[in-house]
Amino acid sequence: MFWDRFYELCCSKNTRPNPVGQELGISSGILTKWKTGTSYPNGENLIKIAKHFNCSIDYLVGLTDKPNSYFNEISPEDAEIIRKIHSLSTENQEELIHMVNYKYEQFLKKRKESLSLSTESTPLDNTLHRLA
């Protein structure tokens, strides 16, 4: 299972396992053992591979069929926003979070006001209710 996933990820990036292994400091002998199934990657190598291909370890070892399971609950657009936020400095991230929280609080306040206005009964509503 692991080798198939690893090979598939290499192909999706138009590369082969040996160059990826070299880049990650994994010998061709280790790659051969993975390919034949006589050995499997240790935790350190799984982490290297997952980071390299931006996929989850769960995907590499066959626990999920979704390479990026941590992004599957959100849209690609939302995932892109998260990537952009993470590329900002800590100071800019904190400022952005403050702005989002402020806008969200405004939204909640308006929604609460809107709901209270729509549930308030008017004298005409009371009269109609009594007649029914």
User: Roughly what percent helix?
Assistant: over 70%
Q: So, CATH architecture of the largest domain?
A: Orthogonal Bundle
Largest sheet at a glance? none
**What is the number of helices?**
8
How much of the sequence lies in strands comes to under 5%
Query: What is the domain tally?
Result: 2
How many strand segments?
Answer: 0
Give me the Rg, rounded: 26 Å
CATH topology name of the largest domain? 434 Repressor (Amino-terminal Domain)
Global shape? elongated
Quick recap:
By secondary structure, this protein is mainly α.
Give a verbal description of the structure.
- The chain folds into 2 domains: 2-71, lambda repressor-like DNA-binding domains (434 Repressor (Amino-terminal Domain), Orthogonal Bundle); 76-131.
- The chain is built from 8 helices and no strands.
- It has helices at residues 2-12, 17-24, 28-36, 43-53, 57-60, 76-87, 90-119, 123-131.
- The longest helix is centred in the last third of the chain and has 30 residues, at 90-119.
- The protein is elongated and about 70 Å long.
- The model has no long low-confidence stretch (mean pLDDT 86).
Topology:
Layout: H1 2-12, H2 17-24, H3 28-36, H4 43-53, H5 57-60, H6 76-87, H7 90-119, H8 123-131
Give a quick set of tags describing it.
132 residues, 71% helix, mainly alpha, 8 helices, elongated, 2 domains, 434 Repressor (Amino-terminal Domain), single chain
